[in-house]
């Protein structure tokens, strides 16, 4: 159906307007059924937390995502576990063996200084596409807006493809408070002077997703999306849900 006036949505091998799902243990057979119908709504797939280390049929799942043109990578918690145990070399070798081209560098669980993260990025950016994450999973930690902006700009300048704003899969830390309410003023200040197409906002619930779509347009990058919600999210991006009903081309404020 092509008779409605709807937002100008990016498609194909998108550089922005990304939907990044979180895979927290979707069985291989179920994943195949989901991707057969909905793969064109998905750009990136994160094996959430440290699930990749214990996932059955891991190689088959990685290959399945790649078959459908989706970029798989392992969540930052596994990276931080390897960092804490001084196993980064082994970790990178594992990614190479699995033919995974993307790596996340984060400090959501343990304190890894910005300088240390930048050093790791310099080490890996010639062999991998790097996604960095800013913000803590500890909901008691408050980071000043200036530090958010500084870290994001610095990480992008260091060669990261994208920077993720921490929100957890529950939406209760980082850019959210303990109750799950989004820090709207933080987001509005955060995007000033920063290329929003390079930021992936973790938005695990429809309420969170609708805020970002209404605030930044249909082609905002969203992460930590439940794999079973990708059709609903795309519906929201097209202004075909009550919460985004008034969305139009004029609301697509990210560059096309």
TrEMBL record:
InterPro entries: Aldolase_TIM (IPR013785), ComA_synth (IPR003830), ComA_synth_sf (IPR036112). Gene3D superfamilies: Aldolase class I (3.20.20.70). The lineage of its organism: Bacteria, Bacillati, Bacillota, Bacilli, Bacillales. It comes from the Bacteria. Pfam families: ComA (PF02679). Belongs to the phosphosulfolactate synthase family. This is Phosphosulfolactate synthase.
